[in-house]
Specification:
The chain is mainly alpha-helical. It has 2 domains: 297 residues, Rossmann fold (3-Layer(aba) Sandwich); 129 residues, Serine Threonine Protein Phosphatase 5, Tetratricopeptide repeat (Alpha Horseshoe), CATH 1.25.40.10. A 5-stranded parallel beta sheet has the order 2-3-1-4-5, sandwiched between helices.
Length: 453
């Protein structure tokens, strides 16, 4: 109906389809707004000032970000025409890092979630995560100098990206928000996953546009001059000038073949797959004017004052206390380990791993009652941790509570007999404390990146 210029009919059908889809969605615009506020709170300029040199200095990654349907695919297609740049498409690499951090916090029972937990990432962990991401990116094209990840919603993850890769190039694509809105509203994103749920309601799109603008304003303040903004309309009007700006920013020489992007033989797996196979066309601009009379809910939502609930976020004065405490414990420095775990518990009183380790130290020092109490509390928070269960059973046996040990572990005889080393305290093995899956890990870096321990 749009091709027939019957815009009222076209919009009515889009409206009807989106109304039906919304009944299947779990998207919560208020939760998204609160999450964006939490991201801004967790990634202030001070975070990077206190962690100089923590990330990987590589310039391999290039991130193209922006609202979906803003022109990110076109921008990637242009720069990927360069012989030293590979366009990898929309990668899930950074979201997987975030999921790994969430898993790590759950395993340790810290009570922390992303993005709150980023202030606990020390230099070793950050480099470990960054190294794992680099290995993944290099596999796409080992011979090039730059690999492009064009996942649009990485605009929410710029803070984490810059923590991992301080020199990463980030291109933010802007487009008339009304065109962004209409384009999203007329596309059915099959699968309707959480990040695209906003696209089925004009007010939700308006709120998402406002959230995007506020986040990008925040990143520009935290990283002044480090994020390149490109307007889709400028690319359409003068592709050569826009292409030169992007290649100069990335740091590669001019190659005229980048302007033949529509002839580039590479897979495109986004809703823009047809458009990027065509030469540039001006009809993609100002499409919103055909639907102007229907956009009042969109504009009202986009202009509405942005508000969120107060952010209550614990800030640790220095990162890595759990890891350094575990290292001290394994080196036999029980006093140093105790000091670090107590500091961590001062800020995060419910941190199960710190509580368990402190209990273990107390048991090693002969304070069985206090130590066992702490270990029990930790296991209550993380009942899935079978290795803590075995270690607590060993503590019970040390305290002469064999029945409690049997009740806890059943017929699990993995613990050595108490007389295994005559005259010595039988060891309590906590190699599994920082468990990720079935791997034995001693650091959150291994747990998050999936690297061998």
């Amino acid at each position: 109906w749009e091709k027939r210029a019957d815009y009222g009919k076209a919009f009515a059908l889009a409206d009807e389809a989106n109304a039906a889809s919304r009944r299947l969605l779990r998207y919560d615009p208020k939760a998204h707004r609160q999450h964006c506020a939490r991201i801004r709170h967790a990634f202030p300029k001070a975070l990077y000032e206190h962690r100089p040199g923590h990330g990987h200095e590589t310039t391999l990654p290039v991130f193209v970000v922006g609202m979906p349907r803003s022109g990110t695919t076109l921008v990637e297609q242009i720069i990927a025409g360069h012989s030293r740049i590979h366009g990898a498409g929309e990668l899930g690499t950074i979201p997987r890092v975030i999921a790994g951090l969430e898993r790590w916090e759950r395993h340790t029972g810290s009570g922390h979630h992303y993005p709150d937990c980023v202030d606990d990432l020390d230099a070793k962990v950050i480099r470990g995560i960054a190294g794992n991401v680099l290995n993944e990116l290099r596999e796409y094209a080992p011979e090039v100098d730059h690999v492009v990840d064009k996942l649009p919603h990485n605009f929410e993850n710029i803070g984490l990206i810059k923590l991992l890769f301080p020199k990463a190039k980030i291109i933010s694509v802007r487009r008339d928000p009304r065109d962004v809105a209409v384009s999203n509203y007329f596309i059915d994103y099959a699968g309707k996953h959480g990040s695209m749920g906003f696209a089925y309601s004009l007010p939700w799109i308006g709120e998402q546009l406002a959230d995007h603008d506020l986040l990008m304003h925040h990143w520009q303040r935290v990283f002044p001059g480090e994020v390149l903004e490109i307007r889709y309309e400028d690319v359409v009007d003068d592709p050569a000038t826009s292409a030169r700006r992007m290649l100069d920013y990335i740091g590669v020489d001019w190659q005229p073949q980048v302007l033949d992007f529509h002839a580039l033989d590479r897979p495109v797996k986004t809703a823009s797959v047809w458009q990027v196979r065509q030469p540039l066309y001006a009809s993609s601009k100002a499409r919103w004017q055909c639907y102007q009379q229907h956009l009042r809910p969109l504009i009202a939502a986009a202009k509405r004052r942005i508000s969120w609930d107060p952010i209550d976020m614990v800030t640790l004065p220095e990162p890595g206390w759990l890891n350094t405490g575990v290292d001290s414990y394994h080196q036999g420095d029980l006093n140093g380990a105790e000091y670090r775990f107590k500091r961590l518990l001062h800020y995060l009183p419910e941190h199960a791993a710190a509580r368990f380790m402190l209990g273990l130290i107390y048991v090693r020092k002969g304070h069985h009652d206090d130590g066992i109490t702490l270990m029990e509390q930790a296991l209550d928070r993380c009942p899935w941790n079978r290795h803590w269960r075995v270690d607590l059973a060993r503590a019970y046996r040390l305290d002469g509570r064999d029945q409690d040990a049997v009740a806890l572990t059943g017929n699990d005889h993995t613990a050595p007999p108490l007389d295994a080393h005559a005259g010595e305290e039988p060891p309590i093995n906590l190699d599994y404390l920082l468990l990720s899956g079935e791997s034995t890990c001693r650091s959150s870096g291994s747990a998050v990146t999936g690297a061998p321990c």
